[in-house]
Amino acid sequence: MPQKICVVGLGYVGLPLACLLSKKFEVAGFDINTNKINDLKQGRDETGEVDNLVQYQINYSADPKIISEANFIIVAVPTPITDDKRPDLAPLISASQIVGRNLTSGSIVVYESTVYPGCTEEDCLPVLIKESGLKFGTDFTIGYSPERVNPGDRVHTIDKIVKIVSGSDDETLAKVAAIYGAITTVHQAPSIKVAEAAKVIENVQRSLNIALMNELALIFDQVGISTKDVIEAAATKWNFQKFSPGLVGGHCIGIDPYYLTYKAQQSGYEPKVILAGQDVNESMAKLVAGKFVGRKTVLVLGVTFKENVPDARNTKAINVMAELKKQGAEVYWHDPIYSAKHQTQGFEKYKYVDSLENSTVKYDGILIFSPHSIFKNYLLSQLQSHCLTNQPLIFDVKGFYNRAEAERLGFKYLTL
Ligand SMILES: NC(=O)c1ccc[n+]([C@@H]2O[C@H](COP(=O)([O-])OP(=O)(O)OC[C@H]3O[C@@H](n4cnc5c(N)ncnc54)[C@H](O)[C@@H]3O)[C@@H](O)[C@H]2O)c1
Fold first, then answer.
1. How far apart are CA 234 and CA 71, in angstroms?
2. pLDDT tens, residue by residue, 189-207
3. Residue nearest to ligand 1 atom 31, measured at CA
4. Which of 44, 180, 195, 362 has the fewest CB atoms in 10 Å of its CB?
């Protein structure tokens, strides 16, 4: 039977995937966000992940009926956490209800959202069964294929990343492998739970490696040596793993470990190392803000969760800004890439600088939070012209600018 695919959730993951699949298959895209659907229909992609969107033949709709025309449904909706750091499955359950109500016999539903092992079969599948009234295993089957894309990364695109695929039975696995195999290389996992666990530990590992570097940065800050210099020296050993300290934000690395720790706790194991790493990572905003104590007027350059992406959801910039405000600083921010479409809460509390050139405010502290490539146009000498003269502080989280030049210009230069 010819495959008709419907991608449910057209965000950073779903949209590029739908585009790539549309080169080989008939593809529809469903999202509950009608504004997004209208934008996509007009060729506008707010994520900036797809070049020249109009070249792809995709039937976009906010009408769930479109799902019933497909026999291969891919779910790529958000998997956030609640305020008390537990998995928030609401989008996943709601998407499963919508898919279930529009599921037709002979279909396969593949989940792509990052979850804990067991979530697809124990949390999503019962919803599909209930809402569809179909018989699992005979009328429809399920699969799981985690997404590994890295927003803002134009090198590691879906077609160049090995994709893990899994299915609820051998026949489904073969079909899932064939569909994804048409657009990229696949690795067949022995079960859905293995595929779910594999994805989540990729981010657990990354989060912990960064946490270790962050702890080292906290130690070396006390000792008075540069963490960057230490890492560079240590990395000359063949088996040293080079990671950098950082403020882990976004909706993957900072969030996904809590999916696994939740599952661990549910299964009767109290995780130690993973949660300790999360705590260290979450303490970094305070460390950065602490360096600005006594500074009265601080400019934050780049507020998105990482450089060169418009997405500021879960950015730690907002935590640093809150700490700065608590310390009594007036906080300004400037970010030419930031997209308000993601409806990030909190930025309205701080003054936005639309154009640095036209701004007359004088700062005694600058935080380079997410160093977008576009900031290459902002010379340190120009930044200095917006600063008060008495040794303004520049905290360059990722070491974007040159320390020697900054110091020559009279800045106090700090980096993680
Ligand atoms: N962004 C990444 O780099 C990345 C990488 C790997 C994995 N993931 C995982 O992929 C999943 C999706 O992430 P994303 O970054 O694409 O999220 P996103 O927020 O960019 O996009 C999700 C889309 O789903 C839509 N949506 C929400 N609820 C829906 C529903 N019930 N029915 C239909 N559409 C719905 C939203 O409107 C939005 O357009 C998450 O589990 C995430 O952890 C993300």
1. 53
2. 999 999 999 999 999 999 9
3. 95
4. 44
